[in-house]
Here is the input.
Amino acid sequence: MELWFTERHTPNVKFSIKVDHQLYSGNSEFQRIDVFDSKEFGRFLTLDGYMMLTEKDEFIYHEMITHVPMAVHPDPKNILVIGAGDGGVVRELTRYSSVESIDLVEIDELVVEVSKKYLPTTACRLDDERVHIYYEDGVKFIRRCENKYDIIIVDSTDPFGPGEGLFTKEFYGSCFKALKEDGIMVNQHESPFYAEDAAAMQRSHKRIVESFPISRVYQAHIPTYPSGHWLFGFASKKYHPVRDYNPTKWSMIGIKTKYYNTHLHTGAFALPNYVEEMLRDVE
Amino acid sequence: MTELSQVNAPIYEALRKFRRMRVVPFDVPGHKRGRGNMELTEFLGEDCMNVDVNSMKPLDNLCHPVSVIKDAEMLAAQAFGAANAFFMVGGTTSAVQSMIMYACKEGDKIIMPRNVHRSAINALILTGAVPVYVNPDVNKQLGIALGMSVSQVEQAIKDNPDAKAIMVNNPTYYGICSDLNRITDLAHAHGMLVLVDEAHGTHFYFGDNFPLTAMAAGADIASVSMHKSGGSLTQSSFLLMGEKVNADYMRQVINLTQTTSASYLLLSSLDISRKRLALGGKEIFAQTVEMAEYARSEINDIGGYYAYSRELINGDSIFDFDVSKLSVFTLPIGLAGIEVYDLLRDEYDIQIEFGDIGNILAYISVGDRKRDIERLISAMSEIKRRFSRTGADMLSHEYISPVVTEAPRKAFYAEKVSLPLDESAGKVCTEFVMCYPPGIPILAPGELITPEIIEYIKYAKEKGCQMTGTEDINIERLNVLK
Here is the structure.
C-alpha cells in the first residue's frame, strides 16, 4: 500500500510526500486541519491541504522569520506574533531572555490545540509565562493597538482563505500604527518563482512599501514550500536590516541556531536579479 | 398535479426538465446553447448558456403567462403577501415606471418625495404626469434627505385633492422609512393610490424586526429589487399588487415597454431567490443584521465616524430605520463620503455602494464574510489615521428644494438652448442633472436653475461624484428652455 500527500504547487506541478500514517484530521470553523507522519519529513501539518510545516525543515522558516528582526532591533521587549498557531515562532522568541512579553494572535484555536497534541517540536514553548494567546482575527486585534510593540511577526498562511486579510494594506497600515517609533514588522512574503505566488508577492510588497519608510526583502530556502525559494518581508520605521545590524552583539547572546547565522543574515538580503526586478517594478 | 408551495420553483424546474429533453433548437437565440459563441460560453459557462433560451410552450411566456411563469408569479405573490406579483426583467426602473404609468395619465398629478429615484421622474416624461414634490425633511447634521412627514403629506393632499397617487420610498437609499401605515390610510381616504418604491426593501418581507412592508401596510403597488438584498441576478425585480389593482391592465401597461424576449436567466434567478427567501429568509437576514450591527459598533469605536442606526428614529420623517444598512457619516474626520468611497477602492481594493457629500453606504448581505467586514473596518480606521483633516469648507447639506415651473414632459420635449453652467441661473432646465450615486436628481426637466444649484453641481463634480443625465457629457453646459 502507498499513501501519498499531494499538494498542487501550480495547476501543472505537483509535490508529494509519502505518508506513513495520518495522525489527525478535523475541521474548524475556518479550515480543514490535518497532521500526517512520514518517513522523509517526519510529522507535517497541512491547512486546507496546503503545507504549513514539516518537522524536518521547519527550523529554516522559524529561525529566519524570528532571528532576523530580533538581531536588528537593539532592544526588543514586546513582541506580537500573528498567525503561527503551531508555536514555531514562539519557540524561537522564548530563547531570548530579554523578551518581556509575547502576544500570539491566532484566529483558529483548533490549530493551537492540534499543534500542542501532535507537534511538540514547534508547540513546546506555548506555555511559557511570557506568552499570551488571543484567539482572534489578526486584522481585528491589531486595529486597536497603537505604539505598543517593538517587533511584529506576521506568520500568515496564503493570501487566500482565512489568512487573506493579513496581506492587505489596511493590515500593514495597522501594523505600522501598532509599532513603536523604531518598530520592525517581518512577514511571510510568498515565493517569487511560480507566476501566481510571484504576483501575490509583488502585491504584498507594493502595499508594504506604501506603508513603511524602510521595506526590504530577504530569502531562505525551504524545501517543502512551492519551488523551495521563499521570501520574507522586513519593514521598519527606523532600522535598516543590514546597515543597522550588529552581528557581534547578536553572537554575544549565545543562541545556537541550525540555519541562521550572522553572515547569512547579510547574505539573505542579496537577492537574485529577477527577484530584484520584480520588487523594483512595484516600488 | 400536487399543489404548489414555496419549496417549488416552477420556472427553474421547467428549465431543468427542458435541459434534459435535449430539444434541437431552430429558434433564437442564435448562439444555440452556446455552441455558436464559444468564447462567451467559456466565459459564462455551459450551464448558463444552456438555459439562455426563448419563450416556448414548456417554458411559458412572460408577456402572457399561462403555465410555469403564472405559477411562479402566484408563488411570489404568496411569499410577499400580495394579491398578485409580476416578474420584471427591466430592473426596478421598469417596475417603478409601470406603476406610475398605471396610476397616471397625461396631466394627472402625483405626489412624491423629491428624493425619488430618477426612474420615477423619467416615468413622468413618459406619461406626462405632473409631480407634486413633498420636500423631505433633511437631517441637518448628516445632510441626508429623510422620509416624508405625515403632516406634509396631509398638506400636499389638501392642496392637490385631484392627485391620482402618492409615491413613497420604503426605505430610502440610506435605510430611512416614512410612516407607511398612516400615509396609506390618508391616501386611500382621499381616493389616491399608494405606490411604493421598495427597491431597497426586499428583505423587509422575509426577515424579523424589519420596518413595515408596502403590502402589509395595505399599499396598492410596490416595486421590489429582488436583485439587491434578495440575491437574484442584476436587473431582475418584482412588481407587487394589492387587491384593488387590476392586474390584467397592469400587464398591458408593463408590456408597453418591457421586452418580449425576457431572459430565462433573470426569470429563474427570481424564482430560485424567492424560494430561498421564503424558506430561509429569517435566518439569512438575521445573519446580515448581525454583521451590520457588528460593523456599526466597531466603526463607531474608531471615533470620528458616525455609523447611524435606530437612534435617529423621530416618530415621523424617520419613522423607522433599516438596520441591515451600514450608512456612515464621514465629515467629522474631514473627508467627504465620496472621498472615503474613492480611498476605499483606490487604496484598499474595497468597493462600497456609494459615497455622497457626507456619507458612505456599504451594502451588507448574507454573501459577506466576517473577515471581509474586518477588512472594511480596518480600512476605515486606516483612512482616518492617514487622511483625516479638519473639515472647514464642507457644505452643510446637499438637499436643495426644487422649483417646478413646467411639467417634466413639456420641458423635456420643448425648444431648448444650451448654455454654459455659469450663465444658466434663472433659466428653466430641460434635462436631468443627477449625482451618482445615490441617483437623486439635483435638477429635473421643468425646474428652475438657481445659483445654489450651480454651486452644488460644481462642488459635487470637484469631489469626484459621478454626474450624469445631461446632454453635455462633461456637465459644463445645461439645456434650458428657449
User: Anything to note?
Assistant: Residues 195-211 of chain A form the longest helix (17 residues). DSSP finds ten helices and twelve strands in chain A. Chain A has a mean pLDDT of 95.
